[in-house]
Predict the 3D structure of the following.
Amino acid sequence: MEGFTVEDETVPTVSPSVAPKTEGEADGSPQHFDLSAEDPELEADGGYDNRASSFEQAFDRNLPAAAAGGNLEQIRERLQFLSIEDQKTVCRRECQIAQQQHDALQRQLQQTIDRYRRVVQLHGAMTSHAGAGESAVRSECVMDEEVLQKYRERIELLEKMLSTLCSEATVSLPRLTPMERAKGFAFSSYANTAVAANKLKDGTAPVLENARGALVSFASRLRRGSGEGAGGYAGDTPAA
């Protein structure tokens, strides 16, 4: 499966062999994504590489979600082109991505709390250690007491949110191996392409057939590589 070029100004990524850019060096130039590109924000855990590739993220952002106008009927429409086992793989991949985002949210909340707390500490240091003649000037240059109180309230709110997230028991499926993640992404990509082509009917029949052939070939290589046999789909009939 070949990569493609998308615009991503918020989370620029690079190939694993290239050193990451420092803050300020990142620009809005097009980035090249492929299945080997990894998101540095999602760390490996428990010996598994659970980092979602930037290629996957770019693709998933284009999928219809329930909150963005998608619905159960659209999801069923996509999954009908996959076998039952491949539907399960796609579902497990989605569960793992959701858990990764949950973990990332917890880290982001903690980092935000630390930043707000640092501002309060810096303000206290500047006002308490300044000389008597400088104290009023320094205090005025930083922030007034009302703003400082807002920061403290924000810290308290975020700490409650983080405590709630951390206290809830999380239930997740066994983690996918890198091979299973690649399969889940390939199946999801194919299903989305099949839906779009099917809506255009006869005019895009060759496109759908080419996509199906590419998926069968790719899935066959994945299964051989993981010791599952050739596998593949039987005919063109969608799964029930």
Notes: Confidence is low (pLDDT under 50) at residues 1-55, 229-238. The first strand starts at residue 4 and ends at 6. The radius of gyration is 24 Å.
